Amino acid sequence: MSREPEFRPHRVVVLAMDGLLPFELGIPHRIFDRPKDAAHRRLYEVVTCSIRPPGPVRTDSDFDVMVPNGPEALATADTVIVPASYEFGPVYEEGVLTPELAAALAHIRPGTRLASICTGVYVLAAAGYLDGRPATTHWADAERLQRLFPRIKVDPDVLYVDDGDVLTSAGVAAGIDLCLHMVRRDHGTAVANAVARRTVVPPHREGGQAQYIRRPLPEPQVSGTTTARAWALGRLHEPIQLRDMAEQESMSVRTFTRRFREEVGMSPGQWLTQQRVEHARHLLETTALSVDQVARDAGFGTAQSMRQHLQAALGVTPTSYRRTFRTGSGING
């Protein structure tokens, strides 16, 4: 009789460097400390390390943080996350690693998943992990990153980029989006949504959503599109036309489309498809409905249509998605 493999949480090691931003250092701890399986075991273990022996690390604020682990902890990581710092020195100025940082990164095992938040991308770039790959960073730094590392395909507009074993994000809130995305990728929508609910943040913002929306709030005395979005979310199972959404705000289709893109950062059609994909994922994970019924309830009409949209968004079929996440971990936040 074969024994079940011993349970071991996925280890996330956060690399703390001088000049770090305390908020961004805390993001991985806040997000990855929450998920638990059906047996209430933590799905992740999060530890922080420095490139030096254990001790204080300077922040960009008026306090230091005591980091309990040296660079050897990187050798134990399943995922390494590099938050932003304002003191990367030659890494930021010249695109080269210091000997101390290079020695620390040498501990990382091949196959370890790597991620960066905001300017943490400079560390991954200087180490060569991003050569020939797509990546992003804070919109204000994107042009400089591209100039310093011409082999990287920098996308200055998106919230985060998932390139499989290397992921990068824009600043601050996009770091939360990236970490939630990794939880969703590892354990499904229900687990990620539970974490988001406990953290009181939006459960899902697509990586391709715009970083910087020039007019995120309507001007005074100008209507927004909130009512239309709420109306659409309540009837995803029905056919929804653009003119139907525009009518909810008493706007012309042209005005509504412009206002919607200004507020949300994508077209109404893109947003509606995104919401239907998310609803389908939720139903596949949490119900025993047939694929045909999930397709109807999510508003795709047919299983073939849903299959095409899930394949485009997730790279898997509905059946494969359900097999992966329906029998996986629990949904404790």
Would you give an account of this structure?
This protein is an alpha/beta fold and 333 residues long. The protein is 40% helix and 12% strand. It is built from 14 helices and 10 strands. Strand 1, helix 1 (22-32) and strand 2 (44-49) form a beta-alpha-beta unit. Residues 213-221 and 328-333 have low confidence and may be disordered.
Q: Name the strands of the widest sheet in spatial order.
A: 2-1-5-6-10-9
Count the E strands.
10
What share of the residues does DSSP label as strand, in percent?
A: 5-15%
Q: What is the element string, with H for helices and E for strands? A: EHEEEEHHEHEHEEEHHHHHHHHH
What spatial form do the alpha-carbon principal axes imply?
globular
Name the structural class.
Answer: alpha/beta
Mean pLDDT: 89
Low-confidence stretches: 213-221, 328-333
Radius of gyration: 21 Å
The N- and C-terminal alpha carbons lie at a distance of 34 Å
Number of helices: 14
Helical content (DSSP H or I, runs of 4+): 40-55%
Largest sheet: 6 strands, mixed
Element layout with pairings:
Layout: E1 10-15, H1 22-32, E2 44-49, E3 55-58, E4 64-67, E5 79-82, H2 90-93, H3 99-105, E6 113-117, H4 121-126, E7 134-135, H5 142-148, E8 153-154, E9 160-162, E10 166-169, H6 173-187, H7 189-199, H8 226-233, H9 242-248, H10 253-264, H11 268-286, H12 291-297, H13 303-314, H14 318-325
Parallel strand pairs: 1-2, 1-5, 5-6, 6-10, 7-8
Antiparallel strand pairs: 3-4, 9-10
